[in-house]
Amino acid sequence: MTIPVYLEFHAKILRKIRSALRRHIIFDLLIMAASVWVIAGVSFSLVENLNIVDGLYWAIVTMTTVGYGDIVPRTMAGRIIAMLTIAAGIAVYTSFISVAASTILEAAQRKRQGYIRYRGVRHVVVIGWTPASEAAIRELRGRGYTGDIVLVTEKPVTAIRESVPPGVTIIRGDLTRRDTLLRANVHRANMIMVSTDSDATTALIVLSVRGLNPKAKIVAEALHPESVELMHKAGANIVVATRDLGGRMLATSLIEPGASMFIEYISKAEAREIEIHELPASVYAGKRYIDVLLELRKKNITPIAIRRRGILIPLPEDDLVIEPDDILVVIGKPQAKERTVLQIPQT
């Protein structure tokens, strides 16, 4: 950063601070305190025949009623100035402390109610508090994701606080409003999840989020399969039709219970013997799928699919050549994972 750009940046920050202070009573109180201090300091220096530094020192000691006793007014005018300074100082500082305490309490109250602005970046934003989003947050934490998660909800924070996992920042507001999304800093998020009680609302939110953040990975829940295409067009990268998926799982449980039991088993984050996860395939670039399978099997890992440029290739042909940007979808034991902490893909 060059010097002119550096100075311009700091000048911009100072202007914002001054603008924010001017809109607050604390700014007025600071001006009053400074005025009393300077006027009293100059008056003391003139009346008591002191230098300006001693006058200002005397004024601040008198205003704060500390009274070190090292300097005392010797003239009648000086004592009158001291009395006026003490009265003005007590009034100003009492008002300042009262306003500051009120501001701090108000900020804490707003935070408890979710009316805050999240300042972090490259985080995960979950929009909507539903059974699906609750399970998703718990799954993220259960799989080792330790980054920031911001939950945006319309529901009162006090009503859901006990259900939300620790460490999740809650922001309350209208899910479809731009200012609510901006308070969650969605334009600087790395991944965004949308789950509401209405597919129309979800599609609208996805459209708004995509407009604010063209690069983020957006995952949306569709309650009805006919809404999947609409959400994709709105900007969602992945759409999960949860009710349709749940219905097919129910049917599979009746006909082939072992298959549905296996899917349920590997989809949970609780401790278990095997997990399904992804591995980068760059180290295997140029090799055949069958050779990679045999190599990974020695590590108790079984590749079952390849994710290539957003397309899933399940059970690839033996002679399929691995490309550098491929992602392997594998099943393996937790201790065999090459990544112990879940990492959200960077954008």
Can you tell me about this structure?
This protein is elongated. Helix content is 49%, strand content 15%. The protein is α/β, with parallel strands linked by helices and 347 residues long. The longest helix is centred in the first third of the chain and has 38 residues, at 76-113. It has 12 helices and 10 strands. The protein has a 6-stranded parallel β-sheet, with helices on both faces. Helix 2 (25-47) crosses helix 3, helix 2 (25-47) packs antiparallel against helix 4 (76-113) and helix 10 packs across helix 11 (257-266).
Instruction: Identify the strand order in the major beta sheet.
Output: 3-2-1-4-5-6
User: Helix and strand string, N-terminal first?
Assistant: HHHHEHEHEHEHEHEHHEHEEE
By secondary-structure content and strand pairing, the structural class works out as alpha/beta
Quickly give the CATH architecture of the largest domain. 3-Layer(aba) Sandwich
Give the overall silhouette: elongated
Fill in the keyword field for this structure.
4-stranded antiparallel β-sheet; Alpha-Beta Plaits; 347 residues; Rossmann fold; 3 domains; Helix Hairpins; alpha/beta; single chain
List the helices and strands and how they pair.
Blueprint: H1 3-22, H2 25-47, H3 52-63, H4 76-113, E1 124-127, H5 131-142, E2 149-153, H6 157-160, E3 168-172, H7 178-183, E4 191-194, H8 199-212, E5 217-222, H9 228-234, E6 238-241, H10 242-255, H11 257-266, E7 275-280, H12 289-297, E8 301-308, E9 311-314, E10 327-332
Parallel strand pairs: 1-2, 1-4, 2-3, 4-5, 5-6
Antiparallel strand pairs: 7-10, 8-9, 8-10
Helix pairs in contact: 2-3, 2-4, 3-4, 10-11
